[in-house]
Amino acid sequence: MSQQVRVRFAPSPTGALHIGGVRTALYNYLFARQNDGVFVLRIEDTDQTRYVAGAEDYIYESLEWLGLIPDESPKVGGNYGPYRQSERKDLYRQYVDQLIEQGHAYYAFDTDQELEAMRERLKAAKAKNLSYNAITRRQMKNSLTLDAQAVQELMDAGTPYVVRIKMPLKEEIRFQDRVFDWVKAHSSTLDDKVLLKSDGMPTYHLANVVDDYLMKITHVIRGKEWLPSSYLHVLLYEYLGWGEQRPEFVHLPLILKPSGEGKLSKRDAQEYGVPVFPLEYHDPKSKEILTGFREEGYFSEGLINFLAFLGWNPGTEQEIFSLKQLVSDFSLDRIGKSDPVFPVDKAKWYNQQYLKEMEDSRILAMMKSRAQHQGISLPDWEDAKFTALVDLMKDRITFPGDILEEASYVFQAPESYDEKTLKKKWNEVSSAFVKDLKDTFAKDEGAWEAEHIKHLLQDLIEKQELKFGKVMAGVRLAVTGLGGGPDLMVVMELIGKEETLARMEKALSELNK
Ligand code: GLU
Q1: pTM of the predicted model, to two decimals?
Q2: 465: which DSSP letter?
């Protein structure tokens, strides 16, 4: 039997989860589900200086909203826990010791000033590479340059130290990436990265490799920005004797700014008016409020569909995919190498497509929460009435909240009248018609429903031998203040008889001045 697929999404809780991270989570999820595998969430919080309170909860809430629920995580546990790296601190030490013992890592005692002095020296000598590496380490204070006794004395005196990898001087490191195929780097271009920090915490590199091994991860699916780190990771797998069990690497292309230049950043959200975070985020440091797809009225299903296409395509014309379809059709082999540009309009397009098919009740709930979010108070209607409004507007909007703006006249009488329509369509005929229609409505005792309103209107048009097109714009202008919009009979039903009559009255007095 082949090995069970186990993948992990391994964010660091350093702030809001960027949409690129969400795509990484999605691809991991799809691959896991497709292979009856396991989707692990691991929180990589070894860098205490970058830790942001609340960021972990933000990750859970985002994944939950999107329906990408991990099978194993700090929250639900699992057989390979703990799933928060800070809680695994003691576990890493033995691997560091093993590496030191085997001569693949060493202690380094250099102070910040000494490191700085090294860089200054190198700069003065016009060296291109300023890093701590196979060459420069020879002049530094570490267990490769000091004798055993000196090292012991430093240790005994409690001198702070880090543990660094001993990068080989001349070695080519190669591996086959699932997306980028064979990639290679020469060890002389790589530095002696710190594996264990002076606070006893592992660095990302060590913790990442050890955890992927211990958690039996079979595929590492992550952003391309980690590709340069992978060479070090490959070496660590070799040195720790896990070469055979090394997971397959799948590096995903970057998501570029809408302009195509550089990585999509949070500033782009402001510039292009589209969120780059799944949920609204209140930055505890800068106090900034960053917009979220959820609060802006995006459907999680549409967002997933949109994100799936940022790096992958099915090879057909089909663009609409449910999560279930994605699970069956997604394939690592159809992930492209080139970095996709973030297509702002496409995100909206997807939302429109999903909105058209969405149950009214969900659109309504989102419209209401948008109203609340924006401090707009809605009338005290029954849901059936709101639902009729949603139905009326569905084909004309991109986001549920658009209804609040696009159909604001349903809630509030117009304060002004569309200039163009006024000039072109408001004349003696239309004004007289509005007056007669108002009187007809006032006298009528039938139910105030769209169908009935339509009959009254048609009867009057026929009686006066007018044309529908000649007079309707005037009626719409009087009732809504606009020159166009959805079915006016339904609009009038929603507005209510009394209010409709009041608006006609007001238009007649204001527009005929
Ligand atoms: N903690 C890394 C991040 O924040 C994870 C990279 C990886 O998946 O190896 O993106």
Answers
A1: 0.93
A2: T
